[in-house]
């Protein structure tokens, strides 16, 4: 890991350790002091500009540099649009637009988009943390051309009814003010980028779940023995560890080549592998925790709900298995060539 | 809070070129020698002539020092060659154990004489090894071995029985884990030593054991008061347990843990590429993702070994994940063929499938059972 990344990771760790706990996750309100403090610390430390080019006032880091930061944020169960803002500012920076000193959220799920003068109308779906962001960045297609548009929040937005940890909203926008609008550069695939971010977050959340399982089982006693001494429990936890390790390894191609964040094959492999792992980790970790894990007040459920959310976004792993299978079959290579290419 | 790290190692142009060289060699050698690819070839398909050819190419003893006849290449280069051999179903069983683990043990713990005597022969594909760990009463509980080496005026006298010794009937040597002191129940890992045993010595008896597929690849090896010279001791007296743990990392982390039946998958795809259902394609995508992930893990361990790290726990991950993967492979092939009745398969594909179906139960037993692997992981996590 580069020294620069270690320093940033340390700053990030200190802010999250100080400000994020399960109480915050359960009671976060846009006007609360806790939220304002956390937001101020993140914005003022310039953490949301890590991927912004240096000449635009950012840290000039590369996508692969922020993998451990995304991972750490997920381990903390950070319930704010922190990573969404990092990615939004990155996309703005790629368009040579200066970053925002505010929380931005983003989506590529749009319908009925109409642009008139400097106003945008349309329906936007599954926008994470819209309640906590001031601006929205979208990727949308108009007349066969993809655009990236940043606009001010407004209009009516509804919290989706779902089983998820992070609030997601649908927005019906009418004549909201566009801050910037540019054609999307061809080399950037926003959807694949967002999927890879989710795969990294899933890995981070699973690491946290593994930690919770170890701690819980090392403390709680039944039948006069700590749970960790029961072979069945050890078996469950070692299987969780195995899934976590495999998830981490599946992300490894993202670490050496930033283009892989947009590449279909290198997106599909971790999307599938972390999706499979998530299913197993959710089931096993709840089994290990017994009824305690099923309560709202204990933090396990926050992370298992997050995993359930992320593994179902952008098509679940089964959908992606089909995409990967076809990607291989359509290339007319033998499997070994496909894997090594 | 990262528990188990598998650093990403990129395959550079040198390694890519090496892959191509191995592929070309295998194509030519298979054609000119009428060699037929086999599944699980590192266990079942021994061909000493082929092993010698690999030695001549410089592809055995890759990481050993040149002064002992090695090649001083990297573990990553060795990894690439190993993968290509497995994927081709090449007949590598004769030299596999010597090249994978026994040679490294000798390099690490052997005397100068042992190295000079044996390493050049391993590197030239002319010296084969069997593993001497399990015993009739000591399977997963390796520290309970009873084979005993008694000190004599001239060296040692070895008595006991080893079992499941794959390829012992073709091998020249076995590295035997034996007690050199009586078992101390309070310190079970002490009093063990490793010995380099020439299998042609008087008193060594090798009895074949037929497996459920009617093959005789493994054996019972009996040592009836076998006289060993002093220099048969490998490494330090009493340090056998510490030595054997490192050997197990070499045994468990390689791509044979998930590529043993690759040719079944490859042949199935070649035959039915255009006949697979949507369900079949979906199952294929899953297996591609899992296979590629395992390769990344195993390649990363090869790098860790090269860097003199001790990836014992990571090796347990690869072994266990590889076992799960190979067991699933059979079910995946069945899913992939949901619209293709078995009767339509070619006889060679049927044969590969049937062999794999019968042999795969052994995968999660050999080299340490799944239960042992999970125990190692649990221990590392502080649960025991």
CATH class of the largest domain in chain B: Mainly Alpha
Shape of chain A: globular
Number of domains of chain B: 3
Find the count of extended strands of chain A (DSSP E, 2+ residues).
Answer: 9
Order of helices and strands of chain B: HHHHHHEEEEEEEEHHHHHHH
Most extensive interface, residues per chain?
Answer: A-B, 51 and 51 residues
| Estimated structural class of chain A | alpha+beta
What is the percentage of strand-forming residues of chain A?
Answer: 15-25%
- Distance between the first and last residues' Cα of chain A: 26 Å
Q: Overview of this structure, please?
A:
The complex is a heterodimer of chains A (341) and B (384). Chain A has 341 residues and is an alpha+beta fold. Chain A has 2 domains: 3-183, no CATH class; 190-340, Butyryl-CoA Dehydrogenase, subunit A, domain 3. Chain A has 12 helices and 9 strands. In chain A, the strands form 2 sheets. In chain A, strands 1, 2, 3, 4, 5, 6 and 7 form a 7-stranded mixed beta sheet that branches. In chain A, helix 6 packs antiparallel against helix 7 (231-250) and helix 6 packs parallel to helix 9 (264-289). Helices cover 48% and strands 13% of the residues of chain B. Chain B contains 13 helices and 8 strands. Chain B has helices at 13-33, 41-44, 48-57, 75-88, 93-109, 112-123, 240-252, 256-259, 262-272, 278-306, 312-336, 347-359, 370-380, and strands at residues 129-132, 148-151, 155-163, 173-179, 192-198, 204-209, 218-229, 233-234. The mean pLDDT of chain B is 94. The chains are: A alpha+beta (341), B alpha+beta (384). Chains A and B meet through helix 6, helix 7, helix 8, helix 9 and helix 11 of A and helix 9, helix 10, helix 11 and helix 13 of B.
